[in-house]
């Protein structure tokens, strides 16, 4: 069997190996190449003493079953000890109005889109993008672009532990924050629309904003 594709890269580091798995190719094709490499073409580095392994699945969203399929192949090599798996979990179907939690790192060129409200545990790096139809809450640094309420919901908000974005967008309103946001004190801020203008406030004022909005709507 000859595998010509390069969907699986194995990189040696100081204290083990990193498996870099392509996040664009079909998953079954990825598994096939991974299985071939650990069973045939890379026996020289996959035999001998215990080797610690880190697995990186990029921006591919995987289910628990898919993650286990990858781990099963590597566990078949007795000397490989899995230390970490970096992947974005596939979101489950959620009822309207619920908050979905995802974790990872959004790197330059990567886009995470979610329908509904999102709690993201991790950083959004420069060049990375999160888009949501609802609210976006980031427990981490927002240094890329975030678009909340993208289907026209002007009541949506964007919050981050460190608010230093390249661009914010709520519904159709776009704001490019000033450079001095980098020096804002380290506390969670959120962006919202007030009379069609984007504003920034501390996260503890979000409940009051929502209460005032409900009063205004007569809820």
From TrEMBL:
It comes from the Bacteria. SUPFAM superfamilies: Cell-division inhibitor MinC, C-terminal domain. Gene3D superfamilies: 2.160.20.70, 3.30.160.540. Keywords: Cell cycle, Cell division, Septation. It holds the Pfam family MinC_C. InterPro entries: CAP/MinC_C, MinC, MinC_C_sf, MinC_N_1, Septum_form_inhib_MinC_C. The keyword Cell division applies. GO terms for biological process: cell morphogenesis; division septum assembly; regulation of cell septum assembly. Residues 104-195 form the Septum formation inhibitor MinC C-terminal domain. Residues 8-85 form the Septum site-determining protein MinC N-terminal domain. Cell division inhibitor that blocks the formation of polar Z ring septums. Rapidly oscillates between the poles of the cell to destabilize FtsZ filaments that have formed before they mature into polar Z rings. Prevents FtsZ polymerization. Belongs to the MinC family. Interacts with MinD and FtsZ. This is Probable septum site-determining protein MinC.
